[in-house]
């Protein structure tokens, strides 16, 4: 049997043959077609409509008010790549990946898909060559505004972005709480805490801990709502401001989930230095920074961080960082990286102490 047409046993392990170069290029070149189809399925809530068992595409088209033939062709493509499955002619069921498109699934990724495969992303991505030539964020070239300023001017994208961040938090925070102990902390300050998913989950696990969520004035109302939903008003409050100018005092741990990757090294250093100043004003020399971030592996090792790194080039202008880059960043701000704790998610818990 040919080694190029079958699994080959090498050193006791089954390995796949190398992909045909032309097929690989074609697959990568048309990847946006699959993303576009996936976005349609997520936006139309097709997974919710299928639910348990199978559904004929005619019924799905009627419920989504779409063209039956077009919807069939979209679902057929997604079935080819393992998202949905065609069980009999023009009938579809959920695969494990499609299950995660259900809005009520405990590990739902529906909101993340709606953001990352959003048509607005294609508009921005189409001008990536500008970023390749200048090193500047693509979105500012496309819209004339920095990413977060643009989001404040576009309610649809603002809402999609923040729902996706909450969605990612659900995946990252539960894995982090399993892998890392926040015990010994009286007060945690969540910098850039968004709509409050992370800090609420941390406080629910540690009932003696108090919390402060810090974000922009337009963001904190969503956090206040979540804090009330979890009956944490007596243990957690919100403050608003600009973390490039100052952060609230009073924390034993300053926590950030996927915040520093949004910013350049110079900007990220400023945020960390403001945390260091908050510790200084409290007279604390034992404070910690705890990040929930990607750590980019070296070489050709596959990891989502290498894709999201380009997302950073599209939008805020930040970057994903390797371990040494995290060490250097902390050092410039007066901290010492103490450990990196991998989790079951692609995120790692990165801990640093005042140097």
- How much beta, percentage-wise? 15-25%
Work out the radius of gyration.
22 Å
Shape estimate: globular
Structural class: alpha/beta
Question: How many separate helices?
Answer: 17
Order of helices and strands: EEHHHEHHEEHHHHHHHEHEHEEHEHHEE
Give the CATH architecture of the largest domain.
3-Layer(aba) Sandwich
Count the beta strands.
Answer: 12
* Annotated CATH topology of the largest domain: Rossmann fold
- The first-to-last residue Cα distance is 61 Å
Question: At the fourth CATH level, what is the homologous superfamily of the largest domain?
Answer: Vaccinia Virus protein VP39
Helical content stands at 40-55%
State the low-pLDDT regions, or none: 1-13
Q: What is the count of distinct domains?
A: 2
User: In order across it, which strands form the biggest sheet?
Assistant: 8-7-6-9-10-12-11
Q: Mean pLDDT, rounded to whole units?
A: 93
Concise synopsis of the structure shown:
The protein is of the alpha/beta class. The protein has helices at residues 21-29, 31-43, 46-50, 57-64, 68-80, 96-99, 110-116, 119-125, 128-134, 138-143, 147-153, 155-179, 197-205, 220-229, 265-282, 304-314, 323-332, and strands at 8-10, 13-15, 54-56, 85-88, 91-93, 187-191, 210-215, 236-240, 253-257, 288-293, 335-342, 348-354.
């Amino acid at each position: 049997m040919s080694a190029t047409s079958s699994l080959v046993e090498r050193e006791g392990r089954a390995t796949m043959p190398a992909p045909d170069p032309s097929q690989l290029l074609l697959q990568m070149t048309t990847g946006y077609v699959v993303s576009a189809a996936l976005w349609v399925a997520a936006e139309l809530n097709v997974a919710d409509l299928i639910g348990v068992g199978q559904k004929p595409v005619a019924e799905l088209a009627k419920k989504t008010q779409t063209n039956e033939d077009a919807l069939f062709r979209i679902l057929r493509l997604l079935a080819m790549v393992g998202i949905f499955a065609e069980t009999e002619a023009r009938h579809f069921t959920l695969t494990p990946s499609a299950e995660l498109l259900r809005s009520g699934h405990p590990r739902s990724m529906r909101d993340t898909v709606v953001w990352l495969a959003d048509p607005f992303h294609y508009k921005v991505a189409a001008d990536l060559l500008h970023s390749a030539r200048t090193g500047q964020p693509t979105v500012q070239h496309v819209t004339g505004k920095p990413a977060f300023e643009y989001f404040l001017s576009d309610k649809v994208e603002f809402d999609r972005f923040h729902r996706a961040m909450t969605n990612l938090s659900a995946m990252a925070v539960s894995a982090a709480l399993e892998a890392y102990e926040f015990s010994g902390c009286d007060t945690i300050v969540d910098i850039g805490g968004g709509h409050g998913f992370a800090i609420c989950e941390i406080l629910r696990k540690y009932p003696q801990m108090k919390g402060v969520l810090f974000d922009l004035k337009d963001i904190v109302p969503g956090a206040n709502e979540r804090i009330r939903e979890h009956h944490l008003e007596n243990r957690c409050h919100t403050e608003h401001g600009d973390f490039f100018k100052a952060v609230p005092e009073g924390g034993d741990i300053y926590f950030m989930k996927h915040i520093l990757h949004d910013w350049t090294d110079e900007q990220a250093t400023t945020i960390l230095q403001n945390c260091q100043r908050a510790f200084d004003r409290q007279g604390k020399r034992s404070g910690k920074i705890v990040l929930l971030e990607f750590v980019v592996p070296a070489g050709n090792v596959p990891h989502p961080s290498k894709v999201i790194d380009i997302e950073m080039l599209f939008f805020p202008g930040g970057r994903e960082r390797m371990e040494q880059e995290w060490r250097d960043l902390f050092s410039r701000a007066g901290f010492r990286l103490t450990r990196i704790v991998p989790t079951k998610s692609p995120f790692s818990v990165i801990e640093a102490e005042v140097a």
